[in-house]
Structures are given as structure tokens and as C-alpha cells.
Amino acid sequence: MGANVSHNRGNGHKSSKSCVHILTFHTTAEWKAHFDASKETNKLMVIDFTATWCGPCKNMDPVIQEFATNYTNVEFIKIDVDELMGVSEEFQVQGMPTFILMKKGKVIDKVVGAKKEELQKLIEKHLS
Fold first, then answer.
1. For residue 1, what are the contacts with CB-CB under 8 A and spacing of at least 6?
2. How confident is the model over 6-65, as pLDDT tens digits?
3. φ and ψ at 34, to 5 degrees?
């Protein structure tokens, strides 16, 4: 099924089993630099606001890995709300998981909750 890998920006770790890349950011500076660069591309970005203690977030992990495998032209990002509180506040994250879909630095859609089908529909909608 899905590979259990994530491409961790912080230490350059990535699994050799698969080319699935889910970016994770551990500092606001790292996130801001990436976010600013993303404004120059038309690539769809899906940000998964998550927390280690959040059960529904953990249930969505294999789903996000599957989506990252299937939608290779979409950039998937995980942000821990406890680690980057300022970023979570900036995007007005109030429930988890929250998935924010963005293009060119602008929020184009949002899913709150572990709603696989809804998220998939929105990814496909914004890819076309």
C-alpha cells in the first residue's frame, strides 16, 4: 500500500524505498522560505495541519502517503500545530486535522476533519 516515508526538510532524511515526499517543517523560518518560494509556482500545495496527540490525524497519515504517491504533481506538507503554533494561527487552524489547499501563495480550499473523500475531490478539482 502506501510507503511510510516522509521527506524531512530538517535533516534531509528520506527513505530509499519510495519517491514519496511529504515535507515537514520544524521552524517558522524554514516554512516561510518554502512558502515564499511556492508563490512563484502554480503547483498545488496541500498542507496537513496535524498534532502527535490527534487520533484522526494519525488515521489520515496513510491516506496522505497514498495521495502523495498517486498525485506526484501535488506538494504535500505536514505542519505540527504544537511545533509551529504561529503558522497554525496564521492559517486560522481550529480543528484537526485541517488540510489547506493552496496555489501561488493563496488559500483555495480547506477541509477540516479526517475526510478522505472530500480531500481527494478537492485535490482533483484543483488539479484540473
1. 62, 66
2. 443 333 333 334 457 899 999 999 999 999 999 999 999 999 999 999 999 999 999 999
3. -65, -45
Catalytic machinery residues? 54, 57
Cα–Cα distance list, 46 to 14, 25, 72, 115 (Å): 19, 14, 12, 14
- Other CB atoms within 10 Å distance of the CB of residue 34: 15
Look-up of cell digits 481550529 = 94
Maximum C-alpha span of the chain: 35
**Cell 498545488 maps to which residue?**
44
Q: CA–CA separation, 123 vs 128, rounded Å? A: 9
C-alpha cell of 97?
486535522
In angstroms, the Cα distances linking 50 to 43, 111, 113, 125, 127 are 22, 13, 10, 23, 23
**Residue (of 59, 31, 33, 60) closest to 48 by Cα position:** 60
Burial class of 17 by CB neighbour count within 10 A (0 to 12, 13 to 18, 19+) = exposed
